[in-house]
Specification:
The complex is a heterotrimer of chains A (311), B (512) and C (357). Chain A has 311 residues and is mostly helical. Chain A is 71% helix and 2% strand. Chain A has a domain of 211 residues.
Chain lengths: 311, 512, 357
């Protein structure tokens, strides 16, 4: 029983970590290029809705994923244009998008799924099934923890490696780093800093879109208003904790996944702690984590949050 | 053969004609100096050639073809490379990564071993000695500059623009740099050297073009020029580099540092076991090449940087661990080294800027409420006295020219009637009129029997103003000399060479 | 208090643009736009009762708007006014529940002070972490919102739950702690008047005292302020304390207005506060007006839902668009400064500093 409980806990931790990882991998790239986007929370929420709506209305989770990505790209483009081209304050525009997306997702959810009577058809949408990887999933403990998940979890693992290579081994990675550390130097070498930043932000939009879809049509099969519940913000903390590296993001996401999965562990073991108190854990952990990292301030891109203006 | 011809270049910023009908040419294999004061338009001209600015009118001819240089990529394509005064290197990346940053030839996936080999080869052919794997922020500035040159060479630049390359170098490094440049010209490279130092022109260059107020004054062969001709052309009148202060007895010591050690931002010792004294009625000038701990020393004295070891006394009080507020209350005034970042709140009005630091003074408030009528009255007086133009105290700090911004800071600090004035790089980047004004005010403070500590990397400034000159090298005061000391000797001290008899055990300033 | 007509142009444009986009969204969604907007208008301006209801709705927005405004002036991004408001409500609830024996005016005063304390405490921690350890206040204040929300969830489900109610909520506070009406029989309460007075007070604090001078100096250039002897850390923490106390006070007043604590006590007032502050250009006097505008929208939201069937969350969409519109409208600030430089440039001494070299 003990082993089974541990296995369940760890598997849940990985499940909870996946959306954080997906979003934070996107943010690693955009922050490395110098963009700080607190709108991630709202965009993820909108993507969760879009994923649900796409899956429900088109009748397939792949459609849902596509719709989520497209919607996410559309919204993050607004962020990108206002902050990169028009150099508005990134935190302000991000906060505005959070409001906008919270409103729009609930507005559309009610418009489409409340008013038309579709609600009676049952709220569940088609969602990504669990795929056990042959052989590997049979390994004791490790098998169920790592190799018995839906495809988006595997995708997030793969992206850790892909992005590590992009950042450390490619000329594109150098451009991204230069855009975030010393945009003027990049510019003087003929690199279009604004293009690099657009590209990085749009890429983060794709990843945030997938993370949102994960919440509604992989981890669950329905949408709930405000269902991200701060996960987008926690993904930002994951980036800080992971010191702006993909592998760090993986570790950070697993840490927060575990903090969230504690809830499950408490339920299984029958420990009597009020639900709301347990639900505070990831948020408190975030504060503690960013505090610890701030003591050793290496890694934050020098031009993070600073619009680039040609003189 | 002329590799570059710039014909009738004009460029205006607002009503300020930065370049007006400028003509310039560069011959293959020559070192051509572009000489002028700050603000003469040299950098603007070169930024146009390099594609960072676009010109309003005029042509650029490179290797006989008239070309449009819309951006730096275009300049690089035409074989023009530029080494900026403020290095354009990404500190977190390695030498090799910086050199190949943005080069299309690398392809998407970087073969680091191959790239490093290429850097090593280039190193060898020009006698540079740069470790291709080293990370930039760990390298001394002299080496970083070589990386900048390698960057241009790797991009097949045959024409190199060097913007004030010696500002951050020791005399020894300067010699080395020009050695490398001579080598380059022998292999067919052509060099444009932007500078305001006449010695560099006379010692190392082939031709010189002198600019003043956005226009070319003259272009001549260096062999036909001398110090006086250049100086006259540059400033537009006879310059006197004579000392402008009258001899004066100094009084009691007001500021005293003993065995002070201070760390820099990287937590490495920037000031080591340093002692100095500044007395009433004297100006102590701190000379040295940029980056030898002068800035950290200045910040420690005004209370902005922690003193790790040693003690500081200000007017008989122990102020080793005092905050800026305490230092100000004890009678210290401070002209910071960076007007925009540390001196002014650019979005505040001139009026508000003039009371920054004095906002809690009795005269400016009744209880909690500010007395803005009094603030206005005082501000108007200061603007008049310090000739801040325009006289409108409601304009924001950002709307003033650099010289007038500095006058606002000076007015604010001197009006506090301090006993000790700490001036860090007080005239950097100012036009000649403002420089004279600021220097005049510093001399006035001395005449009023105040103690002045002047930190400047401009040796001329130190020589003209100081009663005593302390030379800083690698965080230590390597010598304190009277201003009559031959410049050559001070130059040697700035390079760490003491009286030609090296101290036992002290290594030469060879590269790390 | 000079009202500069020009300073009103930017918010007016932003409101216009967001109205247009909002109308477009409703149109696309198939609603009767005219009916919806009329419903919003009528919800506020039908009679005395609806107007006073609008003031009632604007009250918490006035407080959080002021809270966010002062933090923005000090360049602190307090995204946590929501959590500070919630903690203010919690502290006020506890006083209102456990000090029932006190006479009315004393209980109310203590509740309001407790609210200030709760909000200030909740802002102090992120403020201190920012000042002392340079921890981004954006992340920490957001996290504190969630912690506060869950704390209320815990309280109203556990220790102070009124078990006679189906939904989780606290017992009602003592009767004498209810906020008195300004105009008897209407929902316009004393707290709104206090908010107006505080707005004026905050205006004086920011622009007429040396404390406000230091807050603004730190906000615009903390390096220069530090060099000039201003204690930057203290100022940042102080700014957060004032900001948190204002938001907490708003929470306490809201609590005294609705009489019991529940999870949904704030439908995101703290976030609307960001919109309120930005629309007012972080000017406390402006906040009086912008908070009324958003109170008007909130009041209209429910009536729009009732009579035109438009979900009340439409208001959030509208707020988001409005902030972005204002952010875009203020983009050209630097360009405008440059233009001023250019026109003044005839005087040879005024040239942009960077243009010298």
């Amino acid at each position: 029983m003990e082993v089974l409980q541990l296995t369940n806990f760890l598997a849940a931790a990985v499940r909870m970590a996946a959306p954080l990882l997906l979003a934070s991998l996107g943010l690693v790239i955009s922050e490395r290029a110098g963009i700080i986007n607190i709108g991630v929370e709202g965009i993820m929420l909108m993507a969760a809705f879009a994923g649900y709506a796409g899956s429900k209305l088109a009748g397939g989770y792949w459609y849902g994923l596509m719709v989520a990505i497209l919607v996410s790209i559309a919204i993050i483009s607004v962020f990108a244009i206002t902050t990169i081209k028009y150099k508005s304050q990134q935190v302000i525009v991000g906060a505005a998008l959070n409001m906008f997306c919270a409103g729009l997702s609930s507005f559309l959810y009610r418009l489409i799924f409340y008013n038309t009577g579709r609600f009676d058809e049952g709220i569940a949408a088609a969602s990504f099934p669990r795929i056990s990887i042959p052989v590997l999933s049979k390994i004791p403990i490790l098998g169920p923890v790592l190799f018995n998940h839906n495809v988006l979890v595997y995708f997030s693992f793969v992206m850790v490696a892909v992005l590590w290579i992009v950042i450390n081994k490619t000329s594109l990675g150098l451009k991204i780093i230069a855009a975030g550390e010393h945009p003027k130097a990049a510019d003087s070498l003929g690199i279009n800093v604004l293009h690099v930043r657009y590209l990085a932000t749009i890429f983060s939009g794709i990843m945030i879109g997938i993370a949102g879809a994960y919440l509604s049509i992989a981890q669950a099969s329905s949408f709930g208003e405000g269902m991200t519940a701060g996960r987008g913000f926690i993904a930002m903390a994951v980036v800080i904790l992971g010191k702006w590296s993909p592998i760090g993001a993986l570790l950070g996401a697993l840490f927060f996944g575990a903090a969230t999965a504690l809830q499950l562990l408490f339920q299984i073991t029958g420990v009597e702690v009020p639900r709301n108190i347990i639900m505070m854990i990831p948020y408190i952990a975030t504060v503690v984590a960013v505090l610890i990292v701030s003591r050793n301030k290496v890694g934050a891109p020098s031009a993070l949050g600073v619009p680039y203006e040609k003189s | 053969m002329k590799v570059i011809e710039l014909n009738n270049i004009c460029k205006a910023f607002g009503d300020n004609k930065a370049n007006h009908n400028v003509c310039f040419n560069l011959k293959k294999g020559e070192i051509h100096a572009l000489l002028g004061e700050n603000g003469a338009g040299k950098s603007t001209l070169m930024n146009i050639l390099y594609g960072l600015y676009s010109c309003d009118s005029g042509d650029i001819v490179i290797n006989g073809d008239t070309v449009e240089v819309e951006n730096p990529s275009k300049a690089i394509e035409h074989g023009v490379g530029m080494v900026h005064q403020h290095f354009m290197l990404v500190p977190q990346l390695s030498v090799t990564q910086n050199i190949f940053l943005g080069m299309k030839e690398t392809g998407l996936f970087l073969k680091m071993d191959e790239l490093k080999k290429k850097v090593a080869e280039l190193n060898e052919s020009f006698g540079f000695n740069v470790d291709p794997s080293a990370v930039i922020w760990q390298l001394p500035v002299g080496v970083q500059q070589k990386v900048e040159i390698l960057k241009a060479l790797m991009r097949d630049a045959k024409i190199l623009i060097l913007d004030e390359p010696t500002a951050v170098l020791t005399p020894h490094e300067v010699k080395e740099l020009f050695g490398s440049i001579k080598k380059l010209t022998k292999s067919g490279y052509s060099i444009i050297l932007i500078t305001h130092k006449m010695e560099e022109v006379l010692d190392y260059c082939d031709r010189v073009t002198i600019m003043r107020e956005g226009q070319v004054v003259d272009t001549l062969l260096v062999s036909e020029a001398d110090h006086d001709i250049l100086a006259k052309a540059m400033v537009g009148r006879d310059v006197c580099l004579d000392r402008i202060i009258e001899p004066q007895e100094s009084g009691e010591v007001l500021l005293k540092l003993e065995g002070v050690t201070v760390l820099n931002d990287k937590k490495l010792p920037a000031v080591k076991n340093l002692s100095l004294e500044v007395a009433r009625g004297e100006i102590l000038g701190i000379a040295g090449v940029d980056g030898n701990g002068q800035l950290e020393l200045g910040e420690a004295i005004v209370g902005l940087r922690k003193i790790e070891e040693g003690t500081m006394n200000l007017i008989g009080q122990n102020t080793t661990h005092a905050k800026p507020r305490t230092m100000m209350d004890l009678g210290m005034a401070h002209i910071p080294d960076d007007r925009h970042k540390k001196g002014l709140v650019l979005d505040f009005s001139i009026k508000e800027n003039l009371i920054l630091g004095s906002q809690r003074d009795e005269i400016y408030h009744n209880g909690l409420l500010m007395n803005y009528a009094k603030v206005k009255e005082e501000a108007e007086r200061m603007v008049e006295e310090f000739d801040v133009r325009p006289r409108n105290i409601e304009l924001t700090g950002a709307m003033l020219s650099g010289g007038n911004q500095q006058k606002v800071i000076l007015a604010r600090e001197v009006s506090r009637n301090p006993e000790v004035l700490i001036a860090l790089q007080p005239t950097r980047g100012l036009d000649i009129g403002a420089i004279e004004f600021v220097r005049g005010k510093i001399i006035e403070e001395r005449k009023n029997n105040k103690a002045v500590l002047l930190v400047s990397t401009d040796l001329d400034e130190i020589l003209t103003l100081s009663d005593r000159i302390a030379i800083m090298y690698k965080g230590e005061i390597i010598g304190i000399v009277p201003p009559e000391t031959p410049v050559e000797e001070i130059g040697l001290l700035m390079g760490g060479i003491k009286n030609k008899k090296p101290k036992g055990g002290e290594p030469d300033e060879s590269q790390v | 208090m000079r009202v500069r007509f020009k300073s009103l142009i930017r918010p007016a444009i932003a409101i216009g643009i967001s109205l247009a986009i909002g109308a477009l969204i409703l149109l696309v969604a198939g609603y009767d736009v005219g009916k919806a907007f009329l419903a919003i208008w009528n919800a506020s301006f039908r009679n005395l009762r609806t107007i006073t209801t609008t003031f009632n709705k604007a009250s918490p927005l006035l407080y959080v708007g002021l809270a966010v405004a002062i933090s923005f002036r000090g360049n602190v991004f307090n995204i946590g006014a929501e959590g500070q408001l919630l903690m203010g409500a919690v502290f006020a609830t506890i006083v209102g529940l456990y000090l029932q024996f006190l006479p009315g005016f004393l209980l109310i005063i203590l509740m309001l002070l407790a609210g200030c304390l709760g909000g200030a405490l909740w802002a102090f921690i992120p403020g201190y972490l920012k000042a002392r350890y340079d921890v981004s206040e954006v992340i920490t204040t957001i996290m504190f919102n969630y912690i506060a929300l869950n704390f209320i969830g815990y309280l109203v489900r556990g220790p102070i739950r009124d078990t006679t109610q189906a939904e989780p909520q606290s017992f009602a506070i003592a009767r004498q702690g209810f906020l008195p009406s300004l105009i008897p029989g209407t929902p316009l309460h004393l707290g709104y008047l206090l908010g107006i007075l505080l707005a004026i007070g905050l205006f004086y604090l920011l622009f007429k005292t040396y404390i406000g001078y230091e807050v603004r100096a730190v906000g615009l250039n903390k390096n220069a302020a530090n060099v000039a002897g201003v204690n930057v850390r203290k100022t940042v923490v102080g700014t957060m304390l004032i900001s948190g106390a204002l938001a907490g006070l708003g929470g306490a007043i809201e609590l005294a207005n609705i009489h019991y604590l529940l999870e949904g006590i704030s439908p995101g007032y703290g976030f609307t506060g960001i919109a309120v502050a930005i629309l007012a250009n972080s000017n406390p006097i402006g906040v009086i007006f912008s908070s009324f505008l958003f109170g008007f929208l909130n009041a209209g939201a429910t009536s729009m839902q009732r009579s035109a069937g438009v979900s009340a969350s439409f208001v959030q969409i509208f707020q988001g668009i409005m902030i972005i519109a204002i952010a875009l409208a203020s983009v050209n600030k630097t360009k405008i400064t440059n233009k001023i430089k250019k026109t003044l440039g005839k005087d040879k001494n005024i040239t942009a500093a960077k243009e010298v070299e």
